[in-house]
Amino acid sequence: MKASIQFFHSLISSIIIVFFITVSGYGKTISSQRFSSDTLKIRVYLEGPLFDNGNALAMDGRPLMRDNLRSLPLNGQTLIPGKSPYTSIPFYAGNANRYGTVGTQYDLITDSTSVFSIQGQDAIVDWVFIEIRNQNNSGHVLATRSALLQRDGDVVDIDGTSPVYFPGLTATQAYVVVKHRNHLGVMSNVVNLNSLIDFTSGSLSVFDYGTSINPSYNFNGLAQNSNVKPGFRAMWAGDFDSNGKLKFGNPGDDMNQLLFGLLYYGSNAGLSTNFDSAYGYLPMDYDLNGKVKFDNPGDDKNMLFSQIIFYPLNGQLLENFGLIIEQVPTVTLR
Predict the structure, then answer these.
(1) Fewer CB in 10 Å around end: N or C, the chain?
(2) pLDDT for 252-284, tens place per residue?
(3) Which of these, 103, 104, 147, lies nearest to 126 by C-alpha position?
(4) Residue 227 and residue 230: Cα distance in Å, rounded?
């Protein structure tokens, strides 16, 4: 019988150690893998890039999101920035409260060429924002991180492959929140931070408001969209102003964000609503295909409209329905 221990350094080599122990003997080999207690394994889907994904599947049969922002179909251009939008101007300036940071962020990719050259199921879809909240107070944020989202839903660190590192995190149980710049965020109920936190699975317990917002509307089961891919859950798309609410009819609507964002797009000199060349890393890009459109076909306006009209609680099919909200408690302490 013999035993061997191998040490491997990951993204932040001076802090995170991943080790493998192999014990062999009597015709058997036993291997175990352990990550340091301050790294998290999270999985989540965004609704937008699950649309029109060509029925692409990961090796284990789970749906894959599109990575059009990593490689624009038009010309292969990478639109995803090398620095997190959640800590960057101009996006962060108007959303400082929603994306308030706690702790060291590690929000800059040091080798963008390498990270964005990864293809297949581990290709990068976009940035997401993670909050770890006190297990005894869901409004108390203990730590935050920007992180990268892969096509298969895995949330990884800025090297594009490692689990997300939270320096100094000592909690073993907590609420975990995932936010995105134009999707509604989602929060787990208290989970074990040493286990996979899989928001794509119906078996993960997530927070919702139930009937506490309005007794006439039961939000149970609506923290995420369960109708994009059968058997999986995804964060709701269409929050173009990142205010935690989806709305089509004014005032305060996302449709106007789309309209004026397109009209004043740099090369739309004629202020045309049917302008068809608005490419970029844009907040109004419902399906994250790297292009914004207002008039059909293939437009973001109709995708937003359908989201509102067919929302399960919008029984009267109102275009100005105003209760599609992010089901995450307000932050009270950072």
Answers:
(1) N
(2) 899 999 999 999 999 999 999 999 999 999 999
(3) 147
(4) 6
